[in-house]
Amino acid sequence: MESQTRGRVTNGSSDHRHWKKLFSSLSFFSLPFAIGHEDVPHHLPEAHSVPGPPEWATLDVIGSNTLRTIFAPPLWDGDSPISSYLVEWDKEAGIPEVQRITTSQNLNTNEIQTIATSTPDINEIQVIQTSATPQAEVQAITVSPPTGDTTIDSAYSFAISIDTIHVGGSLQYSGQISANAAADGSRSSIAQILENMANMHERPSVERSEINPDGGHTYLVTFPTSMGNVPEMEVFMSDLPISITTLQQGNELEGSFRLEFMGELTADIPSDASSSEMQSYLESLDTIGAVSISRSMADEQGGFEWEIEFLSNSNGGNLPSMEVHGDGLRTSNPVGGADIVVSAGRDGSYISGSYTLAFFGEETNPIPYDADALTVKEELEGLSSIARVHVERTPLDVVGGCTWTVSFLEDGLRSHRGDMPLLVAGSSLTGTPGEIPSIIVTEERKGTIKEVQTINVDGGGADVDPSSSFKLRFEGEETGDILALPLGGNTCLGSTKAKQVITTSTVDTSDVGGDDSVSHLTSFALMYEGYTTSNIMANGAPCEDTSDVIAQELMSLPPLYEVTVSGSDTGVGDEGCSWTVTFLSVMGNPELMSVSAINGHMSTGPGHSVTVGDDYSIIRDTIAMSQPVGFEGDANLIQSELSKLSTIGTVTVSPASAVPDNFGQCIWEITFENKAGDVPTLEVARSGTSLFSTDAELNSGNRIIVTDNTVRGTSEPVSGDFRLEFDGELTGYMPFDASSELMKSSLDALTNIGDVSVTRFGPDVNRCYTWDVTFISDLGPLPILVADDLDLEGTVASMSVSKATVGDLPPFDGPDYGSRVVTDTSELSILIPELKQGIPYYVRISASNSLGTSPSIMPYPPFQIPYPQPPFPPSEVSLEPNDGSTLAVIIDAPFHDGGKDITSFRVDYNTQPFVQEKQRVSLTCSPQPEIQSVTTSATDINEVQYIVLDSSYTGNGEVLEVQNILCDATGGTFGLSLGGDTAYISHDADANDIKESLESLTMIDEVSVAFNNGKTTACAPFDGLAVGDFSVTFQSLSGMTGDLPLMTVESSGLDGARHVGITTAVDGDAPLSGSLKLSFRGAVSEAIDISLANNELANAIDSALEALDTVQQGGVIVSEVNLANGGFEKIFRIEFQGSGVGGNVESLVVVPEHLLVLGSSADAFVLSDGESYAARNGVESVTSLVGNELSGYFRLRLRGHTTESIPFNSSVDEMKARLEELPNIGQVDVQMSGPSKEMAYVWMITFLSNPGYFPPSARDVDSLETLNELSTSVESDASASIIVDTIRNGDDRLQGQFQVTYDDGHTLETTRPLQSFISAEDLKLELEALPNVGQVTIARSKSLVGYEWDIEFTSCALKNSFEVCNDGDLRPLVASNINLEGCGSPSLGVTELSTGSGSGSCPHLNSGVCSDEGTFFNGEYPIRHDIKQLSLGTSYYVQVRLKNSLSHGYRKLSTPSHATPQHNPPGPPPPVILIESTSTSITVGWRKPTENGGKAVSGYELWMEKF
Questions:
Q1: Which pLDDT value is given to residue 4?
Q2: Are 842 and 862 in contact (CB under 8 A)?
């Protein structure tokens, strides 16, 4: 059920609100304490303050001069007990606020174009680089003689180790170094031996000192700077004392640095911070959003480059450089300074430069990329082809892009009407290197054209007859007569100004005491187009002087800003005047003015001729208006006559030529200035006839012809919906032509608004309306209504709200002001008596404590009108058995008598419970909701991928790889590795030993080994000519043929020089062979033999792919790529086709563990997503093609509301959420199908509810509009599209009227037409207005399919001097359809909810009805009434009504609800009386008891006591 609770608050001068608003605006009066919780609201009022206003109040009519107000205590008592309440009343009203809502259009709607600059979104990249000055590490190796020696024998030797594991290197041992080794220059020099170590980057620089004092010497080893800070060498083995010291550390960065961006500084960042660490430090700043970091490898000094890409939109555009703070950076070598710099890796997107605009071939000067609106306006208006424009500009976005909106304005030549060509932009914009900013001109609103029709007078080869005239008709309204050739025949627009004559005259009343002249006390007023002049004396001055007065008065009227008046005596001897008024500022021939006259207490008019005074008066003056022949005006007569029609609006009439041609023929163009759209054709008829057409014959064979659509109007009249907001609450949507009843109903539904009345005016010629909303129960100045007109349609349709009357609160200071202080705070209710009947009284209440008085509150409603009421029901009705046939009814006084004396009461009884009849009127329907589909699509472009089987094979047959190994060592073992396996070989191994060791490797099946240069062991020390030297020929390998990678060596297990070198003696060569497997979407193919001929291999790949579950049959086409310019790699083109593998498909994958391709440099890989491969012949190449697939976003718009961006693959839930975010869409159901192979989808949208529409699902929804921001994966493709189709039009909303009829068995009465949405309150008024219906209570409910009104017949009412009480089982109401429509065939019905049960049948009573009427004699309560002649043992139900001169009031059921007549003991007899007494006896007597309990008294007991 619908219900509302409302109230008001005011301090006597400020605004007031309903209770719901009161709670929010006075929330500080609430005390939400929680035990054990310290979260006390901060906005509580100060302790010990004045209280808040009463929480709520109501006001009711009690009787003809009495009101009652009930109120609640304040929510906050000011921390001081409420001591009293002040209730004030007054009949001095305030001023009701009237707010005016108006729809309008601007048909001077010229073109609007936008100029938008943008550039691709490129993220800024900045590079932070740290570095240090290179400083080489210098270490000293000091060789000393053995103890006791002073010289060093060359037979002594030593070896050192270098451990670079901590920097990603390894632990390596040098070869044996002779104690007297040369510093450099030979195989045995220290420089050479150190260079041979695997963890030495390059050859060090070594210097040998002169002889040390102890006979030894020192080697200074300067390491390559690339090795940075080298760990100190250690002595691995030695025959004599060796010491190693570091003289100079290699330079490496250490420490930390900080970065600053836009005023914010990071914490200390380690000098070797990882990418993730750097990201964390930067993203901790408020000025930096998300970033992506990549870090380079360390340089020789431990310096790094961090490439920082700014990902967040908050860091878009061309950013300022970060600032570096490198104070915390250090180096390992103090002389090598640390440095940190920031550089621009890539500027973020930005726009600079200028552009030009061209219009009709003219071009502006260059306009800066950031030009303000005024600059663009001045440049455009500098073009001769542009008169006036209005320009607005959006703020610059982060990249410097913006949008200028150019509105073409009306000018005197109307050069900007209609559809304008687009401005042409010439771009000299610059921006991020490699990117060219775009500038796009878009037509936002097409300029509209006003309708033009032509009227042509054709003389038929002869002169136009000057007496020919015609009249025009438009949409059923006709003009007056119009001359085909204006008077004088020298202008097509006419030049004669209209004249009217004012004449005063009198009747000679000399014979009855009067005179024969116009009275000096007579005055008159003139009326023109609703405006009236002041009174003008008819004979107060000479006629010529009065001319000036008349002219001044007429020119004070808005339509008559220029007239001339000439006057003279009429010459008939009665001092009458004749004034001729010439209308200089009025076109055509205006309507004759009206006149009214006054003389003393006598007045007359308005009319065209009025006489003040009757036949019995001595004053009989006449003022008459006339237009003699020849005084008619014809200046622009066509425009004047058309403008008088209510359906046409304003027109402009322009002649093709200012003067008629030689035959007197004219052509007029009629421009409809404010009539929207393709206007209906004017019709023409010969004067005096009613035969209207577009062609009419006039006098003398002249014809007049109307030509429609000389220019067809392109604007549209108003349509669509709107809604209103009051103080934060919104109505539902209402149609553009909402009735006053619908607007009232919509506003009444808001919880923060009281009673309003609405008056609608209009429509105008374009279906625009005005509504005046008068606030009845909201008093004082109010917040203004806010109109949401985004759903209005039509050419520049808009809605405005203004205050026609500003509300003001009642002053409470009038002569009938009254007040009362309530000190009993336990009874917050008072009666306000002794008021005047039929006059509204306003009430306000305030609370007081010891500190002062609160603001006042006005009850709801804020005023009531005292008026007589039926009496209130008895406060209590008691029922008890009296005897076996009688029940006693005891009736207590009512709360109030309704303002009239209670004259009688009625006691109704029945053996059944009393039930008030209750019926339900239902208005239901079965609306079909709107269904629309949203479909995306793109052109079908197949994905093309390539499989490349790469090979460096030369085509000369298979050639075995031969690698040569040189080993300089004196003992130990070394390792040779291939394919991750290592074979260890003794330094003195022979050829078989080497062969066996190598063939033990997993991938080597067979090798042959041959010694070179006469060597017989794997290793040998350098003998001055050679070292160990052997060759390995690879005969057969598993998984590898052709050109092989060099084997790698591990030499730390050797003795002596410990140096092994490997080179390629013969490069292997072999054609492609082996097999591979392909994977697609997780499915793995069978092995494919790649040694097949190309055509066979293409078929094998095709078959293998189509055998996968993830590829449908025929899903791929595989073809070989012919390398016309030679080459031995194999390339195959794979085109994906069909729904299962359409669009941008996943890349094929060569399964690594099944990649068993053999041959020289053999490899297999897949090209996809635009990847290219250049053939080894250096000429040909192939490029894969991306399959076409949708991506991006789109938006949907319904009228003026647009969704947020919706992904191309939006889920059902997301589509539903985006649509339901729009205020003009309620609830939708979304079903989705797809995707297609292009990732296109179809969403089926069912509009289940629509705000403001009833039932909610009933709406013929406009087709959704699309804003396409989709893209496709194929860069050159622009086919991404989105369309909306209406699958089913929704039913219109429920509208129209119905009637309700009630037949009481005597009369049949019908309500006025009722709106389909009529409120419970209004239906109550309509039903109670029927002569045969008493009082009813009504509750209205809404469902998804209609309305229900539950009507309970509750009490009586006086109708036409007869009392109407609808008691008992009533006939059903009848609901009749007048013009209900929409909503899928509305249906009306009436059902009985509760069968009424009234008084029972009592045939023994004259009325035949079990009802007793009692009359008051003295008005004393309680009243005792006996219901007699009842049946013993039968239960009876009783109700009582009181009656005053109006009618019976509401019933009161008895307590208990029923009682049963039964025999009772007799009542006590009256007191015993003394009849006689003696000294020994007394005689007493008594009367019978008044109640015998239903049986005759059979005896008495007499009791006596001693006195």
A1: 39
A2: yes
CA 140 → CA 210, 239, 247, 1097, 1267, distances in Å? 13, 18, 7, 65, 77
> Which of 409-413, 534-538, 1431-1435 shows the lowest mean pLDDT across its residues?
409-413
- The count of other CB atoms within 10 Å of the CB of residue 924 is 19
Distance CA 35, CA 27 (A): 20
Across 429-441, average pLDDT = 90
DSSP category for residue 1370: P
Q: Strand, helix or coil at 216?
A: coil
**Predicted local confidence at residue 494, as pLDDT:** 86
Residue 89, pLDDT > 60, answer yes
Task: Assign 495 a pLDDT band (cuts: 50, 70, 90).
Answer: confident
Q: What is the pLDDT of residue 1418?
A: 74
* 686 pLDDT above the threshold of 50: yes
- Is residue 755 classed as helix, strand or coil in its secondary structure? coil
In b/e form, how buried is each residue of 1284-1317, taking b as 16+ CB within 10 angstroms? Answer: eeeeeebbbbbbbbbbbebebeeeebebeebbbb
Cα dist from 873 to 906, 1398, 1444, 1454, whole Å:
11, 17, 11, 11
Q: What is the pLDDT of residues 141-171, one digit of tens each?
A: 999 999 989 999 999 999 999 999 887 788 9
For residues 760 and 743, the answer to whether their CB atoms sit within 8 Å is yes
Contact 918, 1351 (CB under 8 A): yes
Closest CA to 1129 of 1118, 1117, 1137, 1121: 1121
Give the gyration radius of the chain's Cα atoms. Answer: 55
**Collapsing DSSP states into helix, strand and coil, what is residue 700?**
helix
Of 32-36, 676-680, 765-769, the range with the lowest mean pLDDT is 32-36
Angle at 511 between CA 506 and CA 512, to 5 degrees: 85
**Closest to 782 (Cα-Cα) out of 803, 751, 764, 768:** 803
pLDDT 10s digits, 353-383: 999 999 999 999 999 999 999 999 999 999 9
Q: What does the alpha-carbon distance between residue 974 and residue 1113 come to, in Å, rounded to a whole number?
A: 57
- Give residue 1468's pLDDT: 85
Q: What is the DSSP letter of 1069?
A: B
Measure Cα distances from 795 to 711, 714, 1321 in Å.
17, 9, 39
In contact, 765 and 648? CB cutoff 8 Å: yes
Average pLDDT, rounded, for the chain = 91
Say how many C-beta atoms besides its own lie within 10 A of residue 1091's C-beta: 15
Instruction: Region of 1025 please: left (phi>0), alpha (psi -120 to 50) or beta.
Output: alpha
On the 0-12 / 13-18 / 19+ scale of CB atoms within 10 A, 510 is: exposed
Determine the Cα angle at 1366 with ends 1364 and 1367, to 5°.
125
Query: How many CB atoms sit inside 10 A of residue 1172's CB?
Result: 10
* Residue 1417 binned pLDDT confidence (cut-offs 50, 70, 90): low
Exposure pattern of 358-377 as b/e (b: 16+ CB <10 Å)? bbeeeebeebebebeeebbb
Q: What is the pTM of this model?
A: 0.75
Q: CB 806: neighbour CB atoms within 10 A?
A: 12
Q: Which of 1062, 900, 927, 1032 is nearest to 1386 (CA)?
A: 927
Least confident residue range of 65-69, 225-229, 732-736: 225-229
> Strand, helix or coil at 379?
helix
CA dihedral (12, 14, 20, 22) positive or negative = negative
For CA atoms 284, 285, 290, 292, the dihedral sign is: negative
ω into residue 366 within 30 of 0, thus cis?
no
Helix (H) or strand (E) holding 524: strand 523-528
pLDDT for the residue numbered 47: 60
